[in-house]
Amino acid sequence: MMLPLLAFIFGTALVAAAAYAFMPSRAVAIDRRLEELTMGREPGDGKPRLEKLTKALKRLGEKAPRSTREIGTLRLRLVQAGYRRDEALTIFFGIRVAFALLLFALFATSLIARPNLTLALGGLGLGYLLPGMVLARMAKRRAHRIRLSLADMLDLLVVSVEAGLGLDQALTRVGEELAFAYPELADELRLINLELRAGKPRPEALRNLADRTGVDDLSSLVTMLIQTDKFGTSVAQSLRVYSETLRTKRRQRAEEAAAKTGVKMVFPLVLCIFPAIWVVTIGPAAIRFVRVLFPMIQNTR
Q1: CA dihedral 276, 278, 279, 282 (to 10 degrees)
Q2: Could you tell me which of 153, 157, 154, 175 has the C-alpha nearest to residue 166?
Q3: Is the Cβ–Cβ distance between 203 and 226 less than 8 Å?
Q4: What is the pLDDT of residue 246?
Q5: CA–CA separation, 243 and 221 (whole Å)
Q6: What is the C-alpha separation between 154 and 236, in angstroms, rounded?
Q7: Region 147-176: what's the mean pLDDT?
Q8: What pLDDT, on a 0 to 100 scale, did the predictor assign at position 140?
Q9: Residue 28 to residue 221: CA distance in whole angstroms
């Protein structure tokens, strides 16, 4: 009898905390009113739903508890997933808290099933961890797309450098050419160009590229370019050698994936195809065996 009461009290406290978190502060209300007066709109004219949801998640994320140890890791992972805005970390915390509260409310109330405090607490933990797993998956997919585009980038970079362009101009040109086929890599190269124009040293801008993408092959390329610039060797020759090495690594990865195909096909064959073959081949014999053997056993008794 006490478990439903405790679940109701705990859910009420969470709903009250969420309502307090979503409540705009006085400064936010004043800024909103000034914006309405400045833009010449009435208070009833609503903003797009996505913008309202983003602001609500941002307010919730500002009041959500944070761990100082994971802030750096989460910020780097957000950058690797393609989210570079300053409020991306705050919005992520808001999404995590909102998703955790939503799963807790679903299991603690009778919306989908009978209320269960244990499932509600499990859903609370799952809702807190699931956004981080999704973010890691998004960063991994983006890194994979960038890895697939490195070979074409290196070919264009070699052609541009051998044609007489400097490394900075070659990176800019390659970014413009790859904007349609590989937008993620083109965006990263465009950001390098902006950093160089702002006065940042080239080695630092290249290291930032490796940190933002999280791709091992790109980190090796950045290290090679920094060493080439430091020791004064030929950039075009170094890029050509690294391009051939990268092509070899891609071929080896393809061969490795092809070698794993046979092992991976065992599980769907055993679970999906083999039972059907067993029913078709052995099924009639088993039925005949049962029809003949059971009467013989009964007659013997």
Answers
A1: 160
A2: 157
A3: yes
A4: 86
A5: 9
A6: 10
A7: 88
A8: 92
A9: 47
Give me the sign of the Cα torsion angle 87, 88, 93, 97.
positive
Structure tokens at 285: 């014999």
Percent residues over pLDDT 90 in the chain? 3
Angle at 298 between CA 294 and CA 301, to 5 degrees: 140
pLDDT, tens digit, for every residue of 37-52?
A: 545 444 444 456 777 7
Residue 157 burial (C-beta neighbours within 10 Å; 0-12, 13-18, 19+): buried
> Which CA distances in Å does 106 have to 16, 92, 103?
16, 21, 5
Confirm if 192 and 213 have CB atoms less than 8 A apart: no
**Structure confidence at residue 137 (pLDDT):** 92
| Cβ atoms of 150 and 175 closer than 8 Å | no
Report how far residue 87's alpha carbon sits from residue 76's, in angstroms, rounded to the nearest whole number: 13
Query: Running DSSP on this structure, what letter comes out for residue 46?
Result: P
